[in-house]
Specification:
Layout lengths: L18 H40 L8 H8 L3 H25 L3 H10 L6 E3 L8 H4 L20 H13 L9 H13 L7 E5 L7 H7 L4 E6 L2 H14 L4 E4 L12 E7 L9 H12 E11 L8 H13 L5 H5 L3 H7 L7 E6 L4 H6 L4 E6 L13 E6 L7
Helix pairs in contact: 1-3, 2-11, 3-6, 4-9, 6-9, 7-8
Length: 402
Amino acid sequence: MNKIPANQAEHPMMARRSHDDAARQRAVRTLRQRLLPKLAFGSREMYYRSVEPGMRERHDGRVVEDFREIRRAMMELPYVRFQLGTHRVIQELMYETLVDTVQPQLEELADKARSLPRGLGSLRLDPALKVPRYVTAVDIHCQPGGYAHEAFPGDVAAGAIYDRSINMYQSGAGGMTEYMGRAVIQYLDKVWPDFKPRRILDLGCTIGHSTLAYVRRFPEAEVHALDVSAPLLRYAHARAEALGFPVHFSQQNAEHTDFPDGHFDLVVSHILAHETASQAWPAILAESRRLLAPGGLTVHIDLPQLDEIDPYRRFIYTNETQFNNEPFWTAYRQMDLHRLMIEAGFAADEVFRDFTAVMAGRDAQKSSDAVAHSRQLGHGAPPGSGLGFAMLVGTRSAAEVA
Ligand SMILES: C[S@@+](CC[C@H](N)C(=O)[O-])C[C@H]1O[C@@H](n2cnc3c(N)ncnc32)[C@H](O)[C@@H]1O
């Protein structure tokens, strides 16, 4: 496998940056990746030194688990309000600098997206597709215009903004920002070492960055990726082609795709779950099951559920809903994933839960035990490290007739 640089690699589809934009973006990245963890460290100290003991005293020695009650107590601290306000301001500043970069080159980027593809993979758009309201109604995690805004035919701005945001948003995302795909592949290599998928599908692929990790790892496989957003898919297709990766992109709703039953050996998604509404996620799990060939695997990677992390992190995580335009985040984190997998058609012994030891791909790469353990879900919540990603895994028995 190619060595992946720690800093984001430039590629032909990326929006160009002026000297001043690059400097601003480096400053925002520093604030996000250096200041915010320090502020979080401070509020964690306050929680353990005073807030948690105070709550315990008021509850006759019982540890308070409910994130709403923890929130009420934490929000009384001016420091915490400053911490969360700063988080929001830095997020908005990040997108402000990215819009400044992308806005002057909208037409140029659209032209590039039209001219770069060289027929390695394909792009299938569906102008009649109704983009779900849970995608269009919010500027998700504050990205201006959200995922699906299209100012003119051929627009790719949503993709150009997203691409440059990843390395600011997530430290250690790596040169090609495919860290989450690599985390799933580490899991597959460790837990299912003989698994050799012939057809792979990535659901909610955005700009197809995680998708590319599968092309790298399984060069013989036919790799497909879908999303509901045309601007993202145009960008994703041109990006993959410019980088020399064959991927077949299509504009489809992951709740009900047009692929035949049993068409894929591997169906994956990366942080799609928490951005779907509560009716949509069960439908996507059922669709993943329908699409699996006998002997196939589905892996959905996201952050852990609330009952898999400590009470302080429950408070920190759920701020994403309150402060970062992630309306479905908290509801998703309370879903009973085991029950949903059974309702989606998986047998109880076909459902697994795993955790990556750390969040960022760069560290996961260093760690020989990036996947902490593999165990069946449904026998009490397994403890997550609280720092890593969590994988929801379903298998389809090889003996089963499709
Ligand atoms: C957080 S992003 C996913 C990030 C990406 N998978 C990665 O590897 O980093 C969520 C994506 O899912 C897409 N999406 C949301 N609901 C969808 C659905 N029902 N079907 C297909 N795509 C969907 C959004 O348009 C967005 O691009």
